[in-house]
Amino acid sequence: MKRIIAALLIVCMLTFAVAACSGGGGRNRGEVIDLVVYSQLANYFGEMIGWSAEVMLEEFNVRLQIINDGTPGTFQTRMENGFLGDIILFGSDGREYREASRAGLLFDWLEEDLLFDYGEYIWDHFETALNKNRAITGTLHGFGHNIAGNSSDPEAFFYYPRMRYDLYEKLGHPPINSLNDFIPVLEQMVALEPMTEHGTKTYAVSSFTDWDGDMVMMVKCTAALYGWEEFHIGLYHATTQEWEGALEPNGWYLNSLKWHNQLYQRGLYDPDAMTQDWMGFIEKIQNGAVMFTLIEWMGSAFNIDDNTSKDKMMLAVTANDQTNLVNGLNIHGGNRIWSIGANSRYPELAMEIINWFSTPEGTLIYNYGPKGVTWDYDRDGEPYMTELGLQTQQDKKTEIAYGSFFGPYEDGEFQHNNTTWSRDAVNPDSPGGNTFNYETWNSTLLALEIKPVEQRWRNWTGYNRADEWFNATGNVAFAVATDYTASVRSRDLNLTWEQVTRCIREGSWRAIYANSDAEFEQIVAQMIGDALDYGYDQCVEWILGEAQLRREAENRALGR
């Protein structure tokens, strides 16, 4: 009896100790901790709110303060202050990531067994991605995004045209043989519906500048319809392994730029595109002011109940000569890095949180909302979407209640904007080997209501989903995932690079808004001349070496 009592006392003492010290290296669970998440990928600034904030309080007793790069010079200012954030999300594994590493502002995940003690799931499942990260700087500071367990399968298609199928149908499905054939079709669609129900003008295409990088985002995305992927200041073809510069005469970037200008000259291009932000862009899509999009989720933003209930829907319509770019699943992880600040007061807690986002359940919550509300597990252990969950994915304005939050689902989404598992990766916890993508689950396919307009699209294409259509027709350019990481540019080349890319971005936007072909050609010629004066050729010389490194990495991945 004495031995039993003694054992019980020890258990009680250990239980008390664990409760006092659990998660975050000794933090008190009764104390709400504020963590700074510096995300170069976020569109949001401020304290994270809504159902996601409730989840973080429940799981970790933390509040997340999101800092983005919305203000020019944010990165350099935070570098000078010596504190980037507790959790740091880099938009790429290039210059700024390496600068932060050299400056000693990133935590070494192997120091004090941080990864082994607080990131067990990451250690067990993301070994290849961790090895890639360690090779970049020589020190393990994190891992890249969109990881998969194998590299033989493609991700879901991301770049492809979605347009107002209900209007295209009314026109009698006019043939679209090439990219330029979209223009007269879109002109007729705008003529059918020149104003939205809100009394605003409609356009074929809109855009925003928030995501412009070395080039204008929507212009380079247009080239993706033909297998070209952004690669530094130019484009790389997924199957031919060619690289061409952004300023290549008659190249894909300038031809795509011309396409956007032709829309503008016909009054089909949103004049606010250069000045509006991402939120303004999405609002226009949802309100029906945009007829055509280039990225999958942009078209999905229109397909809310307010629109689909009126027999309106944005669905895939492709040109006959397209070869849509699709990326392969990546065991190495992408270039958007999860890391931890070296000067964080709570590195253990930061690691716990990143580890949780890396678990299947954390991934499902990040993608689809609170467990038990918008999704749950069935008796076989497979995740399924609840009726409410399906509604939130079809229309993110759908209201949900969780904890003290009640409001639109989209108001409570996680705002740091980085992933761990690829949505199209196989979920390791799925008994049936399902992916994380709810659209492919049998439970979803059985439960989803097919709108009449979507059923007519299915009848027209002969397929149930856009991905099936593209794969069956063979108009696909598959970009194999590799361990390629960009080399370090010299300080002088960086200065040249910044001048050249600013020149290309600003010149491209001026060219889009040219009022005539002659004005367009004059602006492009000026842009090319200025870029050459700034040192464009020096940038190209460096990129050609990088293109060769990428080819070699692809050939290794393909066993060539």
How far apart lie the N and C ends?
70 Å
- The fraction of residues assigned to DSSP E strands is 5-15%
Low-confidence stretches: 1-28
* Oligomeric state as shown: single chain
Give average pLDDT, whole number.
Answer: 92
- The class by helix and strand makeup works out as alpha+beta
Number of helices: 23
Question: What portion of residues is helical?
Answer: 40-55%
Please give the largest β-sheet: 5 strands, mixed
Query: Spatial order of the strands in the main sheet?
Result: 2-3-1-4-12
Mass-distribution shape: globular
Rg estimate, integer Å = 25 Å
Give the strand tally: 17
Describe the structure in brief:
With 560 residues, the chain is an alpha+beta fold. The chain is built from 23 helices and 17 strands.
